[in-house]
Amino acid sequence: MILRTSVVVQYDCRSRQLQISSIMDTTCRTLTAFKDILEERRKGSDFMFMSKKFNPLVAYRHKCKTSPQKIKDDVLRTAKVQQVIDEVANEQSTTKEEVYKTVNNILNEIGYDKSMPVIRWLGVLLLRILKQSYSALLVNESSIEKVKSVMGNNPVIFAPSHRSYADFILMSYLCFHYDIDIPVIAAGMDFHSMWLMGRLLRESCAFFMRRSFGKDKLYWTVFSEYVQKLVTDGDAAIEFFIEGTRSRTAKSLPPKFGFLTMALAPYFDGRVPDISIVPVNISYDRTLEESLFAYELLGIPKPKESTSGFVKALKLVNEHYGNIYVEFGEPISVKSFCQENGHSDPRLWRQAVPREVPAAVDLEAATVQELAYKVVHAQMASTVLTPFNVLAIALSGSLMWKADAAPSLTHIAREVTWLCSVLETLGALVDCKGPASTEEVLRESLTVHKSLITLTPFDDLVLTDISISPREINTANLKAHSLSHKTMGIAVPLIMLQHYVNPVMHYIIGPAVVTVAMQAMPEAEIQKDKLFRKYHFIRLLLSHDFVFNGAWEVKEFEEALKQLDLLNIIETSALGNLALGNHRKLREIFCNLLQPFLEGYFIFFHVVRKHAAVPCTEKVLLQQAQKELEELLLRGEISHPYSLSLDMLASALKSLVLLQAVTKLKSSEEIKYQKNESTLSSIIHELGQLVSPNPVKNRMSVFRTELLRAKL
């Protein structure tokens, strides 16, 4: 159950348990709202179910039905496409007929198709895989009904979270299951070139988009007009991933704005009365690509998408992946959103200020960005945490771990029970309740994750040895530094474990940032405005690793203070100043969860200071940073190998650009970066106060993997 209003929480120092003495809750999420839709399928014929009569609810009813080919034909006739055809023909000194051919080729590359036989047969295959590999597909059915209630009168956009390639296949199946028209899905060009698979995806309503449009205004115009035609004339919902790509870290990524800007243009132009955006969260007990993501974060490129690779990957279905949880968020009316933000009717913007005028463009861009952040936050708020998510915090946070002994299941079960209470206090929905004891729940969870955590005959927990042969790594294609086999052996399992910690960070990040800031401040009593300045600095620093909306900063700061007060981590004096409370254990957990990020940033900033006196590329900086971090890791001078993550180091570089500590230099050949010494030195100094110095503890943490393997 999720706490939404006032809660009285006390911490018992002896039992180390949170005592929740009263809960007042009027709008709570609960697992009882989720139904396992695989249960019925296990009793019947998949073929018969997928052959059912399909009269779906459409997203946007029109007097005349459209078709995939008509959408393409209509795009070709739009005024903007006609205009750009003329411009390109003049610029390239070619005939309009040749440009028309190019446009037709682009439309054929992009355009979706729809074949119900293909959709039905793929559904049969998917059901077979789901029933074989998953315990349950749990869907919040009341959330589906809310979505269905707003469909029909205006376009609908589904915006699912993106943690796995399975996401868009699941979305299509769910729509079929609940008699909603199959959405048209924005897919990357990686799939387009796959033999057979590209065609099957296209006939399952996928349309394809290039990762980058560059300066190709012909492609950009055609694709933009195609998306807008899907919005204005299409019957089905549009589905796209607002994060832009799969999150290799399992954290939500800051939203991308390009596709959403295209999709909302028909509303801003007054061509549709409204648009409903539906955030969707898909939470996995175990992610299919967990080990591949760990290798990618360390610099090993992902395998190229191919049909043969897909066939080989099917062997993964012989393993067990636990539960999948799906929740559709409250549909967001773009019209209502604009009204709530003081923009009563976007069509009035256009009448008062033409779109070509920068003021109108800025107003639309600000609205799109604010809306995008709202969608991502709604996705995160619909997360369901699994027992293994909580277990991962207990393990990676070194709760009561000793360097010479693996933690016992009994001890970890107590920690998980306590952490579940903490997370529920912070607003999370955790699937840790039920008639079974925590130990029983964890035993079941460990069978799902036995490739990562092994339970010994003595009921101790140890990391499983996960290794990759050096011969399997093509060093010519590495994204950064060539890490040693020993480093990979240490890093991969702990980065995989961090993959299951990261979904929890949404609930912890605000309180953790405040706690880290207070730990770094020497005053016994801290003024709130002084604390806010430190909080603001850390948020800016981590703004590319976590989803922080600057417009919500003050509100989220105040909310974090309330949460910390509930958890007895901070106390407020009679003068309104703040001080750290007596809940030292939870305080340490919050700080430890942020340390890999702060340490990685700190070392990276030193590398930039050393190497970016002259302009250098991102790859050079990442290589040098990974090299130095590897040396520190093997010496036991950093606390967690997650600091080696290239995604995190790339985010650190973006933060330096944001903070104007580095200048981004663009040329026709490549992008380079050069330091601004005074600003960078100031940031390094301030960040240094936040990094926890404890080399003895860190050394134990680093080599814990090897010690525990030896014990096993």
Core attributes:
three-stranded antiparallel sheet; single chain; 712 residues; disordered C terminus; 12% strand; disordered N terminus
Quick gist of this model?
With 712 residues, this protein is α/β, with parallel strands linked by helices. The protein is built from 29 helices and 20 strands. The strands form 6 sheets. Strands 3, 4, 5, 6, 7, 8, 9, 10 and 11 form a 9-stranded mixed β-sheet that branches.
SSE diagram, text form:
Layout: E1 7-12, E2 17-23, E3 34-36, H1 38-41, H2 46-50, H3 68-77, H4 79-91, H5 96-110, H6 116-133, E4 136-140, H7 141-149, E5 156-160, H8 166-177, E6 184-188, H9 189-192, H10 197-203, E7 206-209, H11 217-233, E8 238-239, H12 258-268, E9 276-284, H13 290-297, H14 307-313, E10 323-328, E11 332-333, H15 334-340, H16 346-352, H17 358-381, E12 384-385, H18 387-396, H19 409-425, E13 429-430, H20 438-448, E14 453-455, E15 461-463, H21 485-501, H22 505-519, H23 528-541, H24 553-566, E16 570-572, E17 578-580, H25 584-611, E18 616-617, H26 618-634, H27 646-658, E19 662-666, E20 671-675, H28 677-688, H29 695-711
Parallel strand pairs: 4-10, 5-8, 5-9, 6-7, 6-8, 12-13
Antiparallel strand pairs: 1-2, 3-4, 9-10, 9-11, 14-15, 16-17, 18-20, 19-20
Descriptive report:
- With 712 residues, the protein is of the alpha/beta class.
- It has two domains: 248 residues, Glycerol-3-phosphate (1)-acyltransferase (3-Layer(aba) Sandwich); 328 residues, no CATH class.
- 51% of the residues lie in helices and 12% in strands.
- The chain has 29 helices and 20 strands.
- Strands 3, 4, 5, 6, 7, 8, 9, 10 and 11 form a nine-stranded mixed beta sheet that branches. The protein has a three-stranded antiparallel beta sheet with strand order 18-20-19. It has a two-stranded antiparallel sheet with strand order 1-2.
- α18 crosses α19.
